[in-house]
Amino acid sequence: MALATMGLATAAPLAAAAFADPVAIDQAVAQFTGMPIGAPGGARTPVDRRLRLAACPQPFALEWYGSRRDNVLVQCPVPNGWRIFVPVQAEPRAAAAQKAPDAVARGESVNITVSGRGFTLSRQGEALESGAVGDWIRVRQGNNRNDSVRARIIRPGVVGMDLP
């Protein structure tokens, strides 16, 4: 009987370790935004406790998502890792008015880069939207009028994306 009880006691922590801790995700988002849950600039609500995301062996990768920085993309940076979007509480208008200046203007010629493990590809394109460094915008590749992609602004005149 004691052996069966001991087996159950050790099975519970193993089962809990199979999933990512939503509290750890909340803490990572709060640290990334610099604001607690529910505060202007912080996550709107805690991450849903019903989520069963695989345990992540590496630290979470966080970045702003959306041109208005209204979501935080949280992902497990391993092959076939998960990703979730955490909505952010809008900041008051005074703080929003202090948005970073645009690094790329609509219609501007930009260099589109795609980077992966051991390679970088580069191509000329045209920005279809304006944005600040870190924003995701639509860009048109070369002369193709119908084909556009979304890329993150890296610095003025350069947009790109990283492949896993």
TrEMBL record:
GO terms for biological process: bacterial-type flagellum assembly. The keyword Transferase does not apply. Residues 1-20 form the signal peptide. Pfam families: ChapFlgA, ChapFlgA_N. Coiled coil: none annotated. The keyword Signal applies. Keywords: Signal. Residues 47-91 form the FlgA N-terminal domain. Residues 99-159 form the Flagella basal body P-ring formation protein FlgA SAF domain. This is Flagella basal body P-ring formation protein FlgA C-terminal domain-containing protein.
